[in-house]
Amino acid sequence: MFNRTRSLQITAALASISLLAGCGLLSDDSKDAEKKITVGTTSAPTTLDPAAAWDGSWELYRNVYQTLLAFPTGSAKPQPDAAQNCEFTDSANESYRCTLRKGLKFSNGEALDAKAVKHSLDRIRTIGSKVGPKDLFGSLDRIETPDAQTVVFHLKTPDATFPFVLGSPAASLVAPGAYPADKIREDGKVTGSGPYVLESYKEGSEAVLTGNASYNGFANRRNDGVTIRYFADAGQMISALKAKEIDATYRGLSAAQIRELQDPAAHSQGVQVVENVGSEIRYLVFNPKDDPNVAKPAVRQAIAQVIDRGTLVSKVYQGTAEPLYSMVPKGVVGHKTPFYDKYGQADIPKAKKILKDAGITQPVELTFWYTTDRYGASTADEFTEIKRQLDESGLFKVTLRGQPWKAFQEGYKSGQYPVFGRGWFPDFPDPDNFIAPFVGKENAVGTPYEPAQILTDLLPKSRREGDRAAGIPQFEQAQQIFAEDVRLLPLWQGKLYVAAREDIAGAERALDPQTVFQMWELYRKTSW
Questions:
Q1: Model confidence over 8-31: pLDDT tens digits?
Q2: 344 and 487 housed in the same domain
Q3: Residue 224 contacts by C-beta under 8 Å, 6 or more apart in sequence?
Q4: Residue 320 belongs to a domain with what CATH number?
């Protein structure tokens, strides 16, 4: 998820209306049924092992695994979860100590102690999965466990963002006896210590969660269990919501579906959807390694000059998103608009001049790749509109290729795609997370990009600042470099939407600052 503020506070609101006029009683047959919730989503996990996923799998991880720190609703700073307390022990932000809560256990009875924490995080780096979160731990040198309750993280360089990493599902804690130190667990099971236990799992279909009676952390569970149903098609998910087969939905709704649910006619079906500001972004990635056209800065800059974000958003997303002119979205500390400042509105003559000055006089042939099943039903329409804009400029000839997420992920991570679309949900609420994951020899998008000033100067300086707002000058400069290089091209920033039946409450608190769904906040009303 992949994915990911500053003093950003991300919340999503949910409201509801009557199923039937005057209805005052729940239709469940038992109190047990009333205490369980069914949620639908189009974002199925790619794996159950946290060492091998840096994507929407985090939705499940947050609910079945613990982390040392976490982000309660309304908090832009990490708070203790499995830890009792954590703090930097030096002024340079190079040594970070956590003391664990006492008596913590995994669902298999193993102790969650300092050695278990070390095992959990060391294996991420040892396994080094291409699609895992190892790059988030780039500043970590070694982990020390002076006693059973104490963990000390020694960092290679000052890094004030390290607590934020520990608060993300990337740092999920796993039982050493169930998760090998050097390979991915692949038996379809989970052994964690989170608010829920994974009772059963059918890949791509369903995850059944039951309350973890031994959980000891920050979450206050408001229900006894949650069944997550994974839908390949958002239309089927909406039909299930209207038919009362599921209680709530998140992720994957198209603009047309959101508009349909917002229509007053939907009210008679007992469903309402409410929107809020989000930090989800969409962008293009350019991989110059094996494509001579993409390797030319003029080609990338001309694309930035041609694409009309306003038209893209209005035609495809119908007001459910807004144009974005930086990799750091609105609402995040340090946000600027460097792509607008440099390229302004879409301008074909300017793009033509950029290409002509570089000696390019024939239409540039390019292949754009996108995932068909990860970011919602509108993705194909989005790329069709991008192709239309570029083709009609007369400067480009674009071919589109779509792939299911797993194949798409393997493709971009292995450098197969010259141009491809990605989405990003913040790993943690800090502007660093909209810059650092995209740079370096190894990064979140699988295309080496090593801008020296960002890597050796701007990011290191910003990470020395415990007051994250003090790093704004560095973040602003990094955004400007992105606009010059156009290795990444921001397109739009999305809003958050949650829909539910009228008898479900708590969704206004269910999305944390990482836009990860905290299932424990949902509960069924018992009276009106």
A1: 333 333 333 232 233 333 344 455
A2: yes
A3: 32, 35, 36, 210, 211
A4: 3.10.105.10
